[in-house]
Amino acid sequence: MIELNGITKTYTRPGEESVNALMDVSLQIDEGEFVAIVGSSGSGKSTLMNILGLLDLPSAGSYRLRGQDTAGLTAGAQAHLRNKRIGFVFQTFHLLPRTSALENVELPLLYSDRTSIRDLGRKALESVGLGDRISHRPSELSGGQQQRVAIARALVNEPDLLLADEPTGNLDRRSANEVMAIFQGLNNSGRTIVLVTHDAEIANHSRRIARIERGRIVADERVMDPKIALQEAL
Amino acid sequence: MNTMRLISHSAGMMNRHKLRTGFMMIGSVIGVAALTLVVSVGLAAERKILKLAHEMFGESSLMIMDGGGHMMGGPRNPGTRLKIDDLEAIAKQVPEVESWDPQQGLTASARRGDLADTAQVLGESERSEHVWGRSAVQGAYFDGASVKSSERVALIGQTVVNRLFRNEEPMGAEIQIGSVPFRVVGILEPWGTDPHGMDKDNEIVVPISTLMRRLTNADTITGAKLLVAPSAQQDQMVKPIETILRERHGIAANQPNDFSILTATEVQKVMASIKRILTFYLPMVAAISLLAGGIVSASLMVASVNERAGEIGLRRAVGARTEDIRLQFLIETAATTVVGGIAGILLGYVLARMGATKMHLGPVAPWNAALLGIAASILVGLAAGLLPARRAARMSPVDALR
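Above: the input entities. Below: the structure tokens describing the complete assembly.
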């Protein structure tokens, strides 16, 4: 599904030496995988995530998504892919304040070409166990619930790739566990998930861990016995 | 992307940020209210002034007034030397003068029994009806014989009728002006209020001879209105009239006139300058306040774009194209100023009606002003939204999400 070949990302700021956030990264992720990208802060893992999510362009190298070279895509086509094929989950949730959970979840539908959007938002919220919270505002929800709203938002357009950037970074153990249980459930039903984290214990919930250091992938191995997050809360 | 969906979504966003939206609206409310007020009152005032000027002056008349100096303020020479004889001489020597009516007036109390009124009493000739174009709705004007014999007859305006007669029949009744009794022979056509706010219906017209002999005890007049043949070139008539009057008044060559001559050309000049103020300068001031409102909207929106960077980044991540972001911020700004503009039109209309009622300007037609207000607020909204929308659309999603 994802083929990265020799990806390099260089940031140049005027008056400073240029920084290589990613150097010659090659990575292949197949459909249905659950990959954790692990690294310390500044290792380039967020840059990698932004490139995977078509939010940023590599300085060199090629990125093929479902066999299609992304270098030739127009900005509009990239936006369309983000809308339809990719779901994002962020560390800080990025929910719109003073806006109900349902409206937050429906946000991607605003930019979709679907003709009917009925019930999609409600169903997505139900799938993360928040069917009874659809009219709550973010300020009325716990951190874990807010992140579940954000996951529902990522799922509402039924993308096949889910990108999560430190999704448990702002959550306590219990909420983190809930989030990981949702991810494992989604992966079991066939969704491809790429998770960025610095937390080894979180990473152990995935099926494969790629370690990144100073812009290079230094290890990439299967997880023999993934930790199972209990679905008790759902 | 569904534009209707985006518009209703933007409306929701504005609704959730009531304080910011409110501040953005105030600018266009005030600006458009001022514009509506000024334009609709201006139009009503212009119509009223034109009508009155036409009523009082027509196109083929000329006024001679006692005292030198200028129309519309400026000092006038003291001394009243204009006499009926002067006008008779002019009428005799200048063939273009078709008719004329002298005028002399004073403010006096009019009484009937216990009822009293302070009215403007005007002394006029039997040609008054023809020269001023004001008819009698009941009864008739006095004739030349009445003027010659200084008869104590009067025509009274509607306000005087209301104050002195209540529900009784005024025709043929006796009223006292000062201490002199007059018989009511007619009721004047209602003329409303003049541009100075004087009630033209609180007037009493009596023969000028009677007024001069019985009430003012003077042999001079304050002015006269001359009707000239429509074909006559008014400006060319000024010179001979001036010569006749200067000669009769014995004014030396280096002395200024002790009278003024007012022609339609001069009135038109004054009218044009009034019109310019009403239809250009005042709306300009209102437009500047609208512009200031637009700048406030733009700066609030720019601040809001910076504050909502995370939201913009997120929208990009979930599939918004740069043009979707631009459109959203444009809609948000324009919708706010347009809603503010509509409120401004209503406010301006209410104020205009209040003002027009106070100034007796007659009905205010709000449609021109409303159209102008809507157009102006859309324009200001789009212009104010342009910069913030561009800024929002140019934000890199990666930076915006950080």
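Note for the figure: Helices of chain A lie at 45-52, 75-84, 101-110, 120-127, 143-155, 173-188, 200-203.
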